[in-house]
Amino acid sequence: MTVFDYTNVSSSAFQLRCTACGDVHNIQAKHRTCSCGKVLFVDYDLEKAKETLDLGSIQSRHRYNIWRMAEIMPVFEEKHRYSLGEGWTPIVNLKNIGDKLDLQHLYIKDESFNPTGSFKSRGLCAAVSRAVELGINEFVIPTAGNAGAALAAYAAKTNSNAHIYMPEDTPPFIVTEIKALGADAHLVKGLITDAGRIAKEQGAANNWFDVSTLKEPYRAEGKKTMGLELAEQFNWILPDAIIYPTGGGTGIIGMWKAFDELEELGLIDGKRPKMISIQSSTCAPIVRAFKEGKDYAEFWENAETIAAGLRVPSAIADYLILNTIRESKGTALAVDDLTIKIAMTQLAKEEGIMLSAEGAATIAALELLLSNGDIQTDEKIVAFGTGSGLTTPEAW
Ligand SMILES: *Cc1c(COP(=O)(O)O)cnc(C)c1O
Ligand SMILES: [Zn+2]
User: What angle do CA 277, 278, 281 make, to 5 degrees?
Assistant: First the structure.
């Protein structure tokens, strides 16, 4: 088999498009959100991508990271496709837990294998790589922990600077990690929303590029690779249901975008998984908006949960998350912290997989999803284990 040569492949990205008002923007500009304030997506010329991106060429590719399908990723030059080995995480059959619940095809995509222990590395790898290609090398981010660690790692890799703002109660282990990776780390009184406010002020004052969730178009492209991989790992037939712990929603909307692009490329058919969004019962703005039939989610007061990545009281992409859930005929469900902790223990002791609270929340939701009739025992179900148990040490 001939090995596919990536060095000639460029990206087929050609414009940024607003997901709300439809305005298009120049892809070579340092855009963050649209002038209307909403989320920008990257548009690809998929006819052009098809010239090199087909089944045969994919199968010959030896690169197993987020740049595997470089044609539909947003970086143009090979030298800016930075990597620490993110992506291509295993899909593991949860036989023991599946048997107990009578679920015949239960899997977890174990994202704890990623650099810095969570899937945040996918998004920050794409965002930092593209920003560096655009000549940016000063970054700022507010974080509950994982996004900061991932930014710090890719900033180190690209000789850039990362300025990181996180709540005082961020696990000390992650604060240590962020400092060890060479970032400029700041602890902030209050919640992630307070960290967000200070990051925004400091970013504007110092001309640092803000890579907050979905406030620039490229983190979603990195998260999109979870969907690309899922299709390839399951031999181009998507599962019946995806269960995803939702905070800012980058992953759920990124995967949904991936499926559309794969279908247009002729790599999958029109069948889509039900996208099932899981939140914590003490911070569940998306679940509430879904149940109430709303297009936007209201701010969740007094958000508090051990699943720090889900402690997002207000998401800029709420309308996209809700759309995805509805279009896919999925659902949204909240689970409480105690049920999450039980699922963490069960995954560790019965499956040998030590997941973060957010990741385990997907498993915590299974019983309720079954009894509500949202999933069936013979369906192929993939839960996303978004982070390593070591990223939520306080939960054990
Ligand atoms: C950030 C985070 C989430 C939420 O991810 P989104 O794609 O922004 O919804 C879930 N799990 C972990 C471990 C996280 O760090
Ligand atoms: Zn717009």
Answer: 135
| Cα 283-114-138 angle, rounded to 5 deg | 80
Fold of the domain spanning 91-118+218-395: Rossmann fold (3.40.50)
Q: Are 213 and 250 spatial neighbours (Cβ–Cβ below 8 Å)?
A: yes
Cα–Cα dist 23/10, whole Å: 25
Query: How far apart are the CA of 33 and the centre of ligand 2, in A?
Result: 8
Q: pLDDT tens across 133-182, in order?
A: 999 999 999 998 999 999 999 999 999 999 999 999 898 999 999 999 99
317, with CB counted inside 10 A (0-12, 13-18, 19+), is buried
**pLDDT tens digits for 239-272?**
999 999 999 999 999 999 999 999 999 999 999 9
Locate the ligand 1 atom nearest the alpha carbon of residue 245 and give its number. 10
Cα separation of 219 and 257, whole Å?
A: 13
Which residue's C-alpha comes closest to atom 14 of ligand 1? 309
The end-to-end CA distance of the chain, in Å, is: 47
Q: Is 22 exposed, middle or buried (0-12, 13-18, 19+ CB in 10 A)?
A: exposed
List ligand 1's pocket residues with C-beta within 6 A: 118, 120, 146, 213, 223, 245-251, 309, 356, 358, 386-387
Query: Given this structure, which CATH class describes domain 120-210?
Result: alpha beta
- Ligand 1 midpoint to CA 140 (Å): 18
Q: How far is residue 122's CA from residue 115's CA, in Å, rounded to a whole number?
A: 9
- pTM confidence score: 0.97
DSSP 43: E
Across-strand partners of 163? 140, 184
Which atom, in ligand 1's list, is nearest to the CA of 118? Answer: 13
